[in-house]
Each structure stands twice: as structure tokens, then as C-alpha cells.
Amino acid sequence: METLAETIDWTAVMKLFTYNREYVQLGSSQFIVSHPEPVKKAIDVLRKELDQNPVLYTEEKENVMMQRVREIAAEYFAVTNPNDIAMTDSTTMGLGTIYTGLNLKPGQEVLTTNHDHYSQHEAIRQATGRSGGSYRLIDLFKNLSEITTEEIVDSVVRNIREETRVLGITWVHSSSGLKLPIPKISKALAKINAGREEDKKVLMVLDGVHGFGIELETFSELGCDFFISGCHKWIYGPRGNGLVAATREAWQHVTPVIPSFTDTMDLVIAEENRPKEMDGKQMTPGGFHALEHRWALYDAFKFHLNLGKQQVWDRVHQLNRMCKEGMAEMRHVTLHTPMDHEFSAGIISFEVDGYSTEQVVKELLKKKVVATAAPYKISWARFTPGIINSEEEIKKGLEAVYSLKK
Ligand SMILES: Cc1ncc(COP(=O)(O)O)c(C=O)c1O
Fold first, then answer.
1. Which of 114, 206, 209, 326 is at 20 to 30 A from 243, Cα to Cα?
2. Ramachandran assignment for 260, one of left (phi > 0), alpha (psi -120 to 50 degrees), beta (any other)
């Protein structure tokens, strides 16, 4: 696929993926994905080259190829300096790298919420355990079906204390599908920070994985200090990829946990001109990775840029709306995800009367519909329509849910 016309042939896009279409794939885009053809091709080419001459090829290409990935990721997310992007293996590695690397002082607090993923909570727990700090979990709303931007922003603001150094939060909750008004939260934080000294400002660490690859906001529009995402979900990148984007100021508040393999490595070994400023390159955990997968992430971003961010947003929101409207009409189904685009992205969470979440997922699978169960204390079944799906598949998914009526 070179460039796609303005009106996209979504059936052709679906065919770029080799999913087994005997199954309706409504669980993959927020979990782990299949590689689209351009990504698969790039991996194959790179693997062949690496297999022929791993040492020479790696020595020649590593810095160039990683920079190419940073540059296209920066273009996709409008990050001014590509060197402010660190490459990781996953969202989880990004969260662990940032929380553990943050130079938290004893007594400083991480404020987080009851709606974030295990990976964020564990990273916070371990990091504050090491630093002698603490963490606190809050609810952002009383009732999901009545949420407002004001309630969410107010819940954050009311809970910031003198000792709060970090706000750990999630763009799109994988428990309920709720999308938070992050730009509004970051504006409210900026007001609080205006009255604080530099080393006491509240840093926002955002788990952005379920917005990245769907939503339109750029890094600076979100306004967070650290943006963390995997790239093997909605970006449809090679499995085992993720990134962290941060402002140059924010990078100065972290120390690497794992030494990086950047082009500055030789300078460090020679003890000459060690970089004075921290950045995303030095915060990229080093060691050799699955290089063909790392480098082919370039092709996943190119795939998205060719499709167009607005077109992807339109398609994902259109399919999700169709699916939610179908569920909302079923009396035996409780739809938890808000209908409004403003508060949702690509995750739909629901319950079916008379079934546990585990049973819903099992019964749907018997009908060859792949759904997932959210890994939370209160766990709901999820459908996650994305660019890999068709209207036909949404209909089949809805029919399967309908057939569970007792
Ligand atoms: C909100 C959220 N954060 C983090 C993760 C972990 O993602 P990764 O596989 O990229 O580590 C998930 C998993 O689906 C998630 O839902």
C-alpha cells in the first residue's frame, strides 16, 4: 500500500492483516495485535539482512534506524524534538522505567486513581517503596453514567496536596472505556504548578496506550509531562514496542534504570563529553532488542500517517458508536462505556444479565466472537472495534451478544 485516497477502502485495509476471519476479532486492538502487511514486510526484510550479517548490519544501522523511528513517532505525535522520545518494549516497561527512574524524595507522594491498570499501580507501589514516598488512590467520579468534565477535573484538583509530586493517570480506562479530558486536567495542574517551586511541581505521568493510535490530540495538546504508551495495540506496530515522550524539563527529573545504547555510548566510555542533559535517547533501556521489530515500528507510524489521523479517528469512532448503539438497545445488556465521543475511544465495556464476565467471554467465543475480560477488581467484558474490523463484524458481534438473552 503506498498512499490511500481520501476516501479509504476499509475492506482493503482489513485485508492487510492476516487475522483468522473465522473469528470476529473484537478483542485484539487493545490487547495484542496482528501486524499489517507493510509492517510484516519491513520485519521480513530487516530480519533477512540481520540474519546474513548481524554484527556489521547492527553496527551500521542501529543508531540510524532508531533515530528514524523516533523521527516518525515525533511527526505522528507532534513532538518537537525526536530526542525527547524514549523507546521501550511496552506500556508496562515505560511505566516501570519512568516511575523507578523518577528522583522521588522521601515524603513525596504519587497521587493516582482507582481506574488505572495494574502496570501503573505496581510501578507506583514499587517506586514509592524504594524512595520512602507514598501513594494515594482516588475516585474520579461517583457515577460513570453521569460524569462531567468538571467533576473529573475537580476530583483531581481537590486531591492535590503539598507533598504531591506526581499525578499518575490514564487517558482511556481499559476497565470501562472512559476517556478522560486530559487537556483540561493538565490546564488545571498548570495553575497549581504556577505557584510551586520547580522541584515541587506536580508532574503528570499519563498512561496513554488506549488513546494513542485513535485520538487526535498531540503531545503538547495533552499537556502531560510524561506520555507512556505501547505500540502493539492501536498503532498496530511490531509486537514488543512502546515509547515514552516527555518534555525536556521532565526528562531532567529522571535517572536511567537500565543503561542506554545510544550514539553517546562511546563518549561515556571514553569519559568525554558525557551529555549534560537527560533526554529520551538516554532513557531508552539499552541492550540489544528484537531489532527487526524495533526498527519496523517506523512502518507502523507510516501506515497511520498514510491513512490519516482524522480518517482513523472517524472510522474507529463510527464503528464504536454503531456497536454501543446496538448494545444500548438490548435490555439484557448493561453498557458501561459512555456513548459520547468526548468520553470514549475504542473500548466498549458491558455486562450481560445472568452471566459472569468470564461466562460472557466464553459464550461469545463459542460463537466465534473474540472478546476480552478487563483485568480489574471489577471486571467487565469488552469489545474493542478498530480499523481491523468491518460493520459486518460489528453486526455479528452484536448478534452474538443478543443471543445470550435468557
Ligand atoms: C491501561 C493499560 N495500561 C497498560 C497496559 C499494558 O500494556 P502493554 O502490553 O503495552 O504493557 C494495558 C494492557 O492492556 C492497559 O490496558
1. 114
2. beta
Residue 147: closest CA among 120, 170, 167, 177: 177
Which of 121, 176, 209 for a ligand 1 pocket mutation test, highest count of atoms within 8 Å of Cβ?
Answer: 209
Q: What's the pLDDT band for 5 if we cut at 50, 70, 90? A: very low
Residue where the block lists cell 495484542: 32
d(CA 308, CA 164): 39
pLDDT at 6: 55
Tell me how far the alpha carbon of residue 103 lies from the centroid of ligand 1, in angstroms. Answer: 24
CATH for the 10-26+308-402 domain, from 3.30.70.1050, 3.40.50.11750, 3.90.1150.10, 3.30.450.40: 3.90.1150.10
DSSP string over 7-72: S--HHHHHHTS---TTSEE-SSTTT--PPPHHHHHHHHHHHHHHHH-HHHHHHHHHHHHHHHHHHH
CB 230 within 8 A of CB 198: no
Cell 486513581 belongs to residue: 113
Instruction: Tell me the percentage of the chain whose pLDDT exceeds 70.
Output: 99
Domain 48-305 sits in CATH at 3.40.640.10
